[in-house]
Amino acid sequence: MFNVSFMIETTVNSKKGQNQFIKMIKAVLSALLVLVALSSTFGKYIPKTGRRTPQTLSRGWGDQLIWAQTYEEALYWSRSRNKPLMVIFHLKDCPHSQALKKTLSDDVEIQRALDEDFIILNLMYETTDKHLSPDGQYVPRIIFVDPSMTVRADITGRYANRMYAYEPSDIKILMDNMKKAKKLLKSEL
Questions:
Q1: Which stretches are transmembrane (predicted)?
Q2: In the chain, where are the structural domains located?
Q3: H or E, element range at 67
Q4: Residue 78 has pLDDT above 60, yes or no
């Protein structure tokens, strides 16, 4: 310790020594700055399951599809493009929602129909429009809305107590209902 302070003291006393001292301080501060930057980079939290992929509007229901962000935006797109709107209500942690999501996202025919013929929106919350829950608020449920902004309460699934609920085994019923929504659209033109 004595040697270092003596060295600094003698270095600072001469003009040439002062310049060397300033250069040494700059070098030490630069090295310290680099170490702080490196430690903050490596100090970021990475979950045990690995890096998370950024969440898209699809939420896993079809990443290659174009999804509306809000109900209002979906209604606007539906009206301006003259396509029916399909609204999927679901919850992230609901096993029924997850099972339907997997089946729907893996079905090539449904994904193609959604891409070409529908405006699509998936919601993990209820909207203020009570017409979107004609028989109650449950998940998963799928509601169709035509371009005139009329909720298609007549297009239902197979259950009497949850008329707009679909299960993975109901994919054929869902596809038939999608065709109904498209056909009625053409007859209304």
A1: none
A2: 1-42, 71-182
A3: none
A4: yes
